[in-house]
Structures are given as structure tokens and as C-alpha cells.
Amino acid sequence: MPNRLAEATSPYLLQHADNPVDWYEWGEEAFRKAETEDKPILLSVGYAACHWCHVMAHESFEDPDVAAVMNEHFVCVKVDREERPDVDAIYMDAVQTMSGQGGWPMTVFLTPNREPFFAGTYFPPEDRHGLPGFRRVLEGLAQAWRERREEVLTQGRQIVEALGRNSAFRASSDPLDEGILRQAHGAMHQTFDPDWGGFGMAPKFPQPMTVEFLLRTHLRGYHDSLDMVMVTLDRMAAGGIRDHLGGGFHRYSTDRLWLVPHFEKMLYDNAQLARLYAHAWQVTGNDTYRTVATETLEYLLREIRHRDGGFFSAQDADSEGVEGKFFVWSYEELAKEAGVAVAAYFGAVPEGNWEETNILWTPRPMEDVATDAGVSGDELRAAVDNARPKLLRLREQRIKPATDDKVLASWNGLAISALAECGRVFGERRFVDAAVGAADFVLSALRRQDGRLLRAWRDGRTSGPAYADDHALMAAACLDLYETTFDVRWFTEARTLADDLIRLFHDRDNGGFFQTGSDAEALVIRPKELFDNAVPSGNSVAAEVLQRLALLTGEAEYERAGVSALRLVRDLLGRAPTGFGHALGALDLYLSPAKEIAIVGEPDGEATRALVDEVWKRYLPNAVLAVAAPGDDVSAKTVPLLEGRDALDSDPAAYVCERFVCQRPVSEPEALAAQLD
Question: What was the pLDDT predicted at 169?
Fold first, then answer.
């Protein structure tokens, strides 16, 4: 019989709907039961694409004997970390406080007051590799609850006190200066892998925010910045972490070479990487980067877009119960279908390059492989171009990994920004149209009648209120759409979301932004998300998008609120830069002579478009752009940067300003280029 999770919206929770465990969702029903029956809470947190979450579910949660122990002694609560990042953040801090490390699946034992007293991650069914068996953990904690209650309660109170101290960062009064950027750059240089790119040895994560910061420091003239960017992007593009047939990137690499990934594909990784590769193309002109960005977005449009426009969250690593099975090839099949030379180009060998199968990657230049195969480079290139769609069609006949088909506001914000910016940079109108469709979907399907943004949507049902990162990333997405389409409704939406961000989440006493709104459920602490992990934190995005709005509106309160988030982490930025990639970008914006660009001319006119293209073709991370037709009073009233701007006689005019001081207006693209450069 299905348990209570059969009514959930989360695909992750639905995966556990047939467990013999008497699961509850996080909420008052579970908390009342724990108080009434005087039982501790067993909190299990994971997400749909998590491989080890599936392993623990199969080993323990599907076992009737283990489930019986869980049901007898605990109130069991299952949480999707992607739907409830606030719950996940609080108790992940507890796991790290108690054990020194974290990860998913996350397993935390709470008092009925939701205070954590014991925590870990994956537990095997029996004692193994230094880890206690899960059943032994359950029985030991049940005994402690019965026989050492006061000790357990004291432990819970102490952990909550520690979590409260950890979250009580106050804004620094020390100056925000370029020394922080240089310190961060130096720290990145020390951990950079010069041979294979990325940072550290293994495992390796793509870290698009960190690499984006290096592109910014390249504009500042910092030594080796562009080299670090290019080595990393080249190696990832050639690695097994990239899907060479279907486009897009897997979650991370288990090895130094970017060969063996964890095979899940996440919306947030692919959105950020597509944008990063587009920026690298703007800087270098390397067409490989444009190809990678385009193929990554094609993957999003083909595989994880809802028919109404929103984007799903992820695709699983496993199919048929085996990690990576959908993506790997036997040497025999690859050589038969594509030829020996193509198999060699994709790094395949008869014995396999991973667990007797082959992950496709391109470790050697095509010319070298062609020489070894006795063919010309052009012949091999043609063979590869012919083989890729054929191999993709063959792969599509396999059983696909499952898709986590919930739509998250924040992750869709990342996708909208990537599609809008890549669409304008590459001149791909369908990318822009997809960005508009996704924004329309989120701002209609994920909103209450009172206008409050919501976190998640699935199959017509929504979850609870959105978080700071949802508001910040959707505000940034709407601003990117405005700077792409110049439709003022997107500027209005951006301001509405930003105003809600400040009203509901801003900490006016200590600076920065809480993760949960002032109207949200009360938890044991009110968390602040400070670190940029796989997704930029709400604080980091707020710091950037509120500064951009300040440049467009002239309203100092936006900048004050945004920069308070940077002051909150000021002393950490230089010391732990890979944990603050997006925040460092926001600091770069704050310290730069940012350009405010206003163009007045018919938006569809050839002369106006030539001026706009002059802006779009450059990598200008510290610039804002507003465009309107002459006499467009609505735009001028809505976007203050456009106020008082006129065309030059019958010619369009471009105004380039820095901190509200403007150069003379120009009408020729060459003159605008000189001002921008």
C-alpha cells in the first residue's frame, strides 16, 4: 500500500511512496505525532537525482524489517532538499557541526521540538567501511531516547545554540576594496590544476561562478586569469563530464581528468555553463565555446522543458538501476556503428575506459587521431559529424534515466538568464523566445493570487512560499530579459521581485538576506544562505541584481541593501574564493566604473540595432543597457536611466555614463565602440 508520500508534489518523495516506512512530509502532522507519542523524529533529506539516496532507499527503506524498527521508534519525515532548501540548510549545518562533513542522503534525528541530537549522511545496512549499520544506529538511538533522555535533550539544545551562533554573521565595517579581489585571485591560482583545469585534484566540480570571476579578473588585467579559464573550459568540453552526443554536462567528475562523471544532469549546472561558455566566446572568439553553449541549451530545450515553457529540475544518473548505463558504450557497438577511427576519437578502447565500458570523451586532437587511423583530418571530422546523430538515435532507443519534473523558480531563473543572454549574443531568436516562455510560466504558475512567488510547481500543484534565491534569481532573469527584448514589463517584474526580496528577506539589523521570508514557517533558527554552492546563494545574487537596478534607477536603497550582503561575508571572500564565486562577481561590479548605457532609437530600426549589437558583442559584466523609441514615455517613466534622453535629430543616440556622469551622445557604432573600450 502506498504511504502518505503518494500525495506529494515532489518526484523525490514520490519515489518513496511505496516504502514500508510510515513516512510523513515535513509539517505539523508529523510534529504533533512526535509530541503525542513522545518519539524522536527521523529526518531523511535527499533529492531525486541523488545516486546514494537511491542506494540507501533500496538497502534500508525498502527493507520491511528496517522499516518496522523505524516505524516503531521514530516519526519518519522525508524532505526533498530542492523543495525545502531552508530545512536542508539548517540540518546540513547540524550534520557538519556534529560530524565534520555533509552530503546526501542526509539523516538527522530530532527531538519533537525539532532540535537535532544525532546526524549523519549515508548509512549502510550493516557495519561497513567504518560506518555503523543503519539498523544498529536506529536501535542505539531509540535506547538513548528511552534511557538517557536528558543527555539527548541537552545535546539538541547545544546544537541549536551553535547553529544560531553560526548564522549570526554581522556586516563588516572594513572597506570593500580591490585587495579582496586580488587575494581571491591568488588563492584560486594556488589550487588551480594547470594540466587539467579546475581546482584541486578530485573530485572536480565545474564551478562556473568561480571561472566567471576569472573572466572578470581578466578584464582587470590579472595575470593568468584567461589561461585558467581556457584550460578549464577546454578540458571540460573534451571530458566525459560533457555529453558529446546529447549536449549538456553531468554533475561533476569523480577524477582529475574530467573523464568519469556522476551522471545526473542538473538544470542549474547546464544553465550556468551555457552562459559561461558564451561569455568565453565573447572574450576569445573560440567557436568551440559557442558550440558547447549552443548544444547545452539545445539539450535543455529538447530534454527537460515542459510543454508550457518551464524547465524541469534534473535527469537521474541511473537507468535500469545502474549508474551511467544510458550514456556508456561497449567498444564493439561503437566501432560497429561509427567506425574504428570515430571510436578512437571518442577515447574508446577495447577493454573500456570505465568499468569495462566506454564513456565518450575527446582526449586527443582530431588531427592526431586521424594520423594514427591513416585518414585525413577532414575525413575524420566528416565521419564524426555523421556518427553523432546516428549514435544519438541509437542511444534514444535505450531506457532513459528518470526526469525530476518539478519546476523550481530559482533554477528556472538561471535558465531564463542563460537563454536570454545566449539568444542575443548568438542571434538565436528561439533561445530568447524560450526564455520569455519560461518566465511567463514561472510568473503565472508559481504565484499565489496575492502575487507571492512560490518555490516549486509540478503537474499543476505548487509547494510553499519562495525563498530569497528564488526572488533574486528571477529578478535577475527578468532584468536579463529586459536587456534582451527591451519590453518594459520585464523591468517592472524585476523591480517587483526585488522590492519583495527587500521587504520579505532583508536583515536591516545585521545586513544581508535571510533565506526564508518574514511570512514563512518558523524554524529552530532563521537561516541565512551565505555560500555559493552549486547554485549561487540568495545573498550573492541579491548583491548583484540590486546593484544593477540601482544603476538603472538611481535609487541608492537598492545598492545599500545589496552591498550589505557583501559586507556580511567580506572577511571570507578572499580566503575561501571558490565558495563565493558569484559574490566576488558582485564585488567586482561594486568596485568597477560600471557603465550605464541608454540608447534612444526605433528598437527594430537598422541603425538602432547596430548600436545595440555593438554593446551585445562585448563581454561587459559591469554594464546595464536600456533602449527605447523616441517619445516612448512609458519606457522613460518606467526605466529612469532613459529619462531625458533624446535621439540626435533623426538618428538614434547612445548615451554611455559611469556612475551617473555621461559622455556626449553618439550615433555611429564606431564612436560607441570607442566609448565602451
Answer: 78
**Distance from C-alpha of 404 to C-alpha of 114, rounded to nearest angstrom:** 28
Which secondary structure element, helix H or strand E, spans residue 127, and what is its range? none
CA separation for the pair 288, 160 (Å, rounded): 50
Spatial separation of the C-alpha atoms in residues 669 and 156, rounded to whole Å: 65
Q: Cell 546540513 identifies what position?
A: 92
How far is it, in rounded angstroms, from Cα 480 to Cα 486? 9
Q: What is the pLDDT of residue 481?
A: 98
Helix ranges, 397-454 (H): 409-426, 429-445
Residue 53 backbone dihedrals phi, psi, to 5 degrees? -65, -40
- Which is it for the CA torsion 117, 527, 537, 296, positive or negative? positive
Write the CA distances from 582 to 164, 236, 239, 260, 341, integer angstroms: 25, 20, 25, 27, 42
pLDDT above 80 for 167: no
Per-residue burial over 351-365, b = 16 or more CB atoms within 10 Å of its CB, e = otherwise: eebbeebbbbbbbee
- Tell me, what DSSP letter sits at residue 578? G
Reply yes or no on whether the pLDDT at 316 is more than 90. Answer: yes
| Helices 556-568, 581-591: inter-axial angle, 10-degree rounding | 130
3-state secondary structure string across 488-534: HHHHHHHHHHHHHHHHHHECCCCCCECCCCCCCCCCCCCCCCCCCCC
CA 498 and chain centroid, separation: 19
What is the β-pairing status of strands 623-628 and 595-600? parallel
- Residue given cell 508529523 in the structure block: 30
pLDDT, position 166: 66
Question: According to DSSP H, which parts of 347-487 are helical?
Answer: 366-373, 377-396, 409-426, 429-445, 468-485
Q: Closest by alpha carbon to 91, among 141, 156, 22, 8?
A: 156
pLDDT in tens, 227-245: 999 999 999 999 999 999 9
Largest Cα span, the chain: 87
**Rg of the chain over all Cα atoms, to the nearest angstrom:** 26
Res 1: pLDDT:
72
Rounded to whole angstroms, how far apart are CA atoms 133 and 143?
16
In terms of phi and psi (left: phi > 0; alpha: psi -120 to 50; beta: otherwise), the region of 278 is alpha
| Pair 324, 263: CB distance under 8 Å | yes
| Partner residues linked to 456 by β-bridges | 408
Cβ(214)–Cβ(229) below 8 Å: yes
**CA-based nearest residue to 479, from 460, 492, 466, 469:** 492
Average pLDDT, stretch 311-334?
95
Q: Please, how many CA atoms are within 13 Å of residue 276, restricted to the half-sphere of its CB?
A: 29
Which residue type, as a one-letter code, is found at position 361? W
User: Contact at 8 Å (CB) between 617 and 645?
Assistant: no
Q: What is the DSSP letter of 57?
A: I
List, in sequence order, every residue forming a beta bridge with 513; answer none if it has no partner.
Answer: 506
Segment holding 157, helix H or strand E: helix 149-166
Closest CA to 538 of 494, 509, 588, 502: 502
Structure confidence at residue 573 (pLDDT): 96
Q: With residue 318 as reference, give the H or E element that holds it.
A: strand 318-319
Sequence letter at residue 42:
L
Give the strand pairing for 322-323 and 318-319: antiparallel
Instruction: State the pLDDT at residue 171.
Output: 85
Q: Does the pLDDT at position 50 exceed 90?
A: no
Residue whose C-alpha cell is 567506425: 339
